[in-house]
Design goal:
The complex is a heterodimer of chains A (246) and B (333).
Chain A lengths: L1 E10 L2 E11 L4 E5 L6 H8 L7 E6 L2 E2 L5 H4 L3 E4 L11 H6 L14 H13 L15 H14 L4 E4 L8 H16 L3 E6 L2 H7 L2 E6 L2 E7 L5 H8 L3 H8 L2
Parallel strand pairs in A: 3-8, 3-9, 6-7, 7-8
Antiparallel strand pairs in A: 1-2, 1-4, 4-5, 9-10
Chain B lengths: L3 H27 L7 H8 L5 H35 L7 H4 L1 H14 L4 H25 L4 H26 L5 H9 L10 H18 L1 H7 L3 H6 L4 H23 L5 H13 L3 H25 L7 H18 L6
The chains are: A alpha/beta (246), B mainly alpha (333).
Chain lengths: 246, 333
């Protein structure tokens, strides 16, 4: 379980997050919704312990995130970045194997146990057949699944997915979202950011809607009324209705 | 189990390279203006042989061949490490300015008549300062990061070369100048048996941490935040790797002068053999680098009556390789 308590964050004078509080339970998929630039990435950076909030705290099962050593944190909390293009063309298997680094000592390499974990993780997200392919040679959706497999091999039970569908085509978006949903069903806590309300409605158990860096609404996905969406994205209600109900 | 086929292939390649290095050492000892036969080598190693043969073996050939292997191994390992930590396939000790910086430090030390150890320390200090400047300049530079670091390296290399040139200008033309000039061209022809332990100490101090940390170098090729969420302190690990890679570069330059391209070419050739995973890449790079420089040095001392400096030969191989690297279609490494 992850608890965010009255989190505030500013870059210099610009306040990005104000008084953000919420809880994500075991086995739920929480969508963090809001337009680009609303503070979703900053919120994630604070949750992951990458940025230090000026006020407020993040707790993992009662323990403050900033008090947990990075190597211990890696075994509780896994980050799935947007599918990226690193410089070197690692194999899909090696890319996923990197997730197991925190399980072995600082001066050693992952061993047989970690190799088993990675095979199981790749199998689970359905891309074991790609294990020897280059990470840069596969599609964006397959890369995203590789990064999810890496997070699973990391053996954390909380997964933080940063806009996992933003560079994907329609089919791959659905595949990745279905995978996230399935993991939540299997007992993982999944926190996923998105700027797309339709995705939040389709897949999330609960939605956290951010506006101007503050929580505007939090609840089951039926809170996403046309009025709320119009307000979050600053669009004319008539225009929105015409678009959504045709 | 998954991954074992690859591990098996890697083990075979490493064993093959190790055998080739060992065979190469024996062959290289035999080769030369005064050939020593294999049976003579066995006799010398077991305490026999003539006094001339023993002197030739222990004072001339063995140190030179060992140093060729050590330097080849070190600059290749440094190149692979720099490529990883700078996330840059074009990185290499000579391109980043680490070699030129070490050369400037060493030539100043030679001008001031420092001892071998003094030259080593001065080379390391100047090399580390150059790399630190390259990092600072590339961080401040706008635009393409890949290009920024290369341009910063080129700029600071030329500044370091200016220092070396100035040293040549003021050096004693009958004694220090020829010594510095020939050494700067990149050569192992003047090495002595005492140079082997002198270079071996910093090389071991630098290589051991690199080999121990080699799995973690993989995570440095991703973003720092990503590495941190997987439990790796990227900035700290990067500093350790850079210091170690610079130390072995400086040790190489101090004994052998400027030997270009090896640090770029060998890691890429090794990537073709064993892939990008540093767990396999780094040991294989060390062996291939040792083998390569030993063979090039054999050519250097046997091809013509006069010796061809190593640096000239490695450039002949390296420059076309670099052109191929920057012009090929696929942007993957």
């Amino acid at each position: 379980m992850i608890t965010v308590n009255k989190l505030s964050f500013s870059y210099g004078k610009a306040r990005v997050l104000r008084d953000v509080s919420f809880t994500a339970e075991r086995g739920e998929l929480l969508a963090v919704l809001g337009p680009n630039g609303v503070g979703k990435s900053t919120l994630f950076r604070c949750i992951l312990g990458l940025s230090k909030p000026q006020a407020g705290e993040v707790f993992l099962d009662g323990e403050r995130v900033c008090d947990i050593r990075p190597s211990d944190l890696a075994r509780k909390l896994a980050y799935v970045p947007q599918s990226h293009a690193p410089t070197f063309n690692y194999s899909v298997f090696d890319m996923a194997l990197m997730g197991t680094t925190a399980q072995v000592g600082g001066l050693s390499s992952p061993g047989a146990e970690q190799i088993k974990l990675v095979s199981a993780a790749l199998e689970r997200v359905g891309i074991l057949q790609l294990k020897n392919r280059g990470y840069l040679e596969i599609s964006g959706g397959e890369r995203q699944l590789t990064l999810i497999a890496r997070a699973l091999a990391q053996q954390a039970d909380i997964l933080v997915l940063d806009e996992p569908t933003s560079n994907l085509d329609y089919g791959n978006q659905l595949r990745v979202l279905a995978q996230a949903k399935e993991l939540a069903g299997a007992g993982y806590t999944v926190i996923q950011s998105t700027h797309n309300p339709d995705q939040a409605m389709l897949f999330a158990d609960r939605v956290l809607a951010l506006k101007g860096g503050a929580v505007r609404a939090l609840g089951k996905s039926d809170i996403l009324t046309d009025e709320l969406i119009g307000e979050l994205y600053d669009i004319d209600l008539k225009q929105l209705k015409r678009y959504r109900h045709t | 189990m998954v991954g074992t086929e690859k591990a098996k292939k890697y083990t075979l390649i490493v064993i093959a390279l190790a055998i080739l290095v060992a065979a190469g050492i024996v062959l290289s000892i035999a080769l030369g203006r005064y050939p020593i036969s294999i049976s003579d080598i066995i006799a010398i190693v077991s305490g026999g042989g003539t006094a001339t043969q023993r002197a030739l073996f222990f004072n001339v050939r063995l140190p030179r061949i060992l140093l060729a292997c050590m330097v080849g191994c070190s600059i290749s390992a440094a190149g692979a490490s720099y490529q990883g930590v700078f996330q840059n396939p074009m990185a290499a000790p000579d391109i980043l300015g680490a070699s030129s910086g070490a050369a400037a430090g060493a030539s100043v030390a030679m001008l001031l008549q420092f001892s071998g150890r003094g030259i080593m320390v001065s080379a390391f200090a100047a090399s580390l300062a150059t790399i630190a400047l390259v990092m600072a300049v590339s961080k401040a530079a706008r635009g393409n990061k890949l290009l920024g670091i290369i341009l910063a390296g080129i700029m600071l290399s030329s500044l370091a070369n200016a220092v070396s040139s100035f040293v040549k200008l003021v050096a004693d033309p009958y004694d220090t100048l020829p010594k510095i000039t020939f050494w700067l061209l990149g050569s192992l022809s003047k090495v002595k048996l005492s140079d082997v332990p002198l270079a071996a100490v910093p090389m071991v101090i630098g290589l051991v941490p690199l080999l121990l940390l080699r799995w973690r170098i993989n995570l440095l090729t991703l973003s720092d935040s990503e590495a941190r969420t997987m439990g790796v302190n990227a900035p700290r690990t990067r500093v350790i790797v850079i210091i170690c890679a610079t130390l072995i570069t400086a040790a190489s330059v101090a004994v052998s002068g400027l030997i270009g391209w090896v640090g770029l070419v060998i890691p890429h050739l090794t990537r073709r053999l064993v892939g990008n995973n540093f767990k396999h890449l780094l040991p294989a790079t060390c062996l291939l680098g040792a083998l390569f420089l030993m063979l090039v040095d054999d050519i250097s001392r046997n091809l013509l009556i006069t010796e061809i400096p190593l640096g000239i030969l490695t450039s002949v191989v390296g420059a076309p390789f670099f052109l191929w690297l920057i012009t090929r279609k696929r942007e993957e490494y």
